[in-house]
Amino acid sequence: MDKTPPQLLIIFGASGDLTERKLIPALFSLYEEKYLPKNFAVLGISRSDSDDGSFRDQVVLQNKHIPETVKNHGLRKSFAEKVFYFDLGDSYDVDYSALNERIEALDKAQKTAGNYIFYLSTPPSLYEIIARNLNKAGLTSDNGGWTRLIVEKPFGYDLASAHELNDNLQKYFQESQIYRIDHYLGKETVQNLLVTRFANSIFEPLWNRNYIRHVEITNAESVGVGKRGGYYDKSGALRDMFQNHLLQIVSLVVMEPPIGSEPEEIRNEKVKALKSLRIMDDPETLHKNTIRGQYLAGESNGEPVIGYRQEEGVDPNSKTETYAALKFYVDNWRWAGVPFYVRTAKRMPTKVTEVVIHFKTPHHQIFRNSMVQNKDNKLIIRIQPNEGILVKFGVKVPGQGFEVERANLDFYYSELADQKIMEAYERLLLDAMQGDATLYARADEVEAAWEFVDPIVKFWQTDPNAVTFGYSAGMWGPKNADELIEGEYTWRNPGEHLTDDPGFCVIV
Ligand SMILES: NC(=O)C1=CN([C@@H]2O[C@H](COP(=O)(O)OP(=O)(O)OC[C@H]3O[C@@H](n4cnc5c(N)ncnc54)[C@H](OP(=O)(O)O)[C@@H]3O)[C@@H](O)[C@H]2O)C=CC1
Ligand SMILES: O=C1O[C@H](COP(=O)(O)O)[C@@H](O)[C@H](O)[C@H]1O
């Protein structure tokens, strides 16, 4: 494709899980769909003792994350020939001259025009080290082609470390070269939030405090922490999901209309949105408006599962949250007084991510005697699964009188049958290859998100009154989270109704 120039993608941390499970399958899919330029190559780098042949075998030919089809059998071989490996030796903190030579040789042989993307898929502690050594080797400036840097999450551990990382990376790369990945932004339905809001005239006029009662966002996973206990126990749901993915969704719901769809036009509005979140830093508000939970043993998909504290790599006395629910406000003209309820959790009954816009009750109730008071017009944006949009509204029950019943207008993305939905990493990689940073987070965006999250993390970690509630795996989280939402409202828990959690408790 013309929009994607020749280039070499250089992955640090190539022997890791992300490369095998996400990056290479995404690249293969782009290759299969003919999105990659003819002159394209991948160079995997790590400390593992491997070579081009074994690396190709591992990440392409034998990679079980690339779906096996009759059609792609031959393609795997031709794609594998574009994949190379470089063994960095014992450390990432070494002289990169030999790497530089390999890159130059590959660039020449594969005719990639001096265009390089460096992808950091290592532990975050190596990001600065790699950037510094690339710079020393003269690999960070545009020498004839262009150079970009993709940085994986987590971007920092708190505001101070994110700020330091931004400073460090910006010593070696221009901000315009840095692409901070957040795979939720690569999801089609997350991007569709922008289109729903700004390509229609029927939603945006209502998108404010005059018509919206509250906003609810749920991100639920049925899985536990799996093999990532060691990482997760130091992170927790707030850092792992909320600071990045959930706040990205919040920013798209909250933002003002950008003047156009250029990357900076959209990113400027997202930063403004994040900066308008009311920071909760007094213990009373934090106590009232934040709930943290941790899963106990229970059931997942009908099978018994262990509790979080029994997971591999997790401290048996851990209080780390696998559930986080927050109520907060947005201090700007559009959203003054509208509560936002946002939760993210593991070991829920199902996997679902959705945004629910709850509209206010009509100003005057004409059909007072109806059994169903149509108090809740809702717009539900289903991010995953069953990607689509659902509008709930009231209709008249046929017959005498004015009985009101709820009805649905339901759109599923799958109905656009001939459109394949690109996987998030495919979309994001392709965008970076084409130099489009719209769906990548900017330095100030990441820092604004940390500014909001930091005081909550600190409160949970240090305040003696900050409690972690236990909930049984397979339930909808600590039941007192229901009390976060005032009035007769409660969380929309898609799927079957579950009875009271017998395991609900305070974790000590
Ligand atoms: N896996 C996933 O689904 C996701 C991962 N990420 C992020 O992507 C990055 C890579 O993740 P992932 O591939 O899962 O991680 P892995 O632990 O599976 O791989 C890490 C890679 O970094 C290298 N490495 C260098 N030093 C170390 C070290 N001290 N400890 C461990 N590995 C080291 C490893 O190779 P070698 O030791 O041979 O050099 C390996 O290639 C991380 O920043 C992670 O947070 C983000 C979202 C999802
Ligand atoms: O970044 C992360 O995301 C996954 C969830 O991603 P999804 O695309 O499956 O919704 C989460 O499991 C993981 O803990 C987190 O690091």
CATH architecture of the largest domain: 2-Layer Sandwich
Note the beta-strand portion: 15-25%
Shape: globular
Look up the CATH topology of the largest domain: Dihydrodipicolinate Reductase, domain 2
Rg to the nearest angstrom? 24 Å
Mean pLDDT: 94
Binding site for substrate: 183, 187, 221, 240, 346, 351
Domain Glucose-6-phosphate dehydrogenase NAD-binding: 10-192
EC number: 1.1.1.49
InterPro entries: G6P_DH, G6P_DH_AS, G6P_DH_C, G6P_DH_NAD-bd, NAD(P)-bd_dom_sf
Outline the secondary-structure elements.
Blueprint: E1 7-12, H1 17-32, E2 40-46, H2 52-61, H3 73-80, E3 83-87, H4 97-110, E4 116-120, H5 127-136, E5 147-151, H6 159-172, E6 178-180, H7 188-198, E7 212-220, H8 229-254, H9 263-275, H10 283-289, E8 290-296, E9 298-300, E10 303-305, E11 323-328, E12 340-345, E13 352-359, E14 378-384, E15 388-396, E16 404-412, H11 424-433, H12 443-462, E17 468-472, E18 505-507
Parallel strand pairs: 1-2, 1-4, 2-3, 4-5, 5-6, 7-12, 8-17
Antiparallel strand pairs: 7-13, 8-11, 9-10, 11-12, 13-14, 14-15, 15-16, 17-18
Helix pairs in contact: 1-11, 2-3, 5-6, 6-12, 8-9, 8-12, 9-12
The structure holds NADPH dihydro-nicotinamide-adenine-dinucleotide phosphate and the ligand O=C1O[C@H](COP(=O)(O)O)[C@@H](O)[C@H](O)[C@H]1O.
Protein name: Glucose-6-phosphate 1-dehydrogenase
Keywords: Carbohydrate metabolism, Glucose metabolism, NADP, Oxidoreductase
EC number: 1.1.1.49
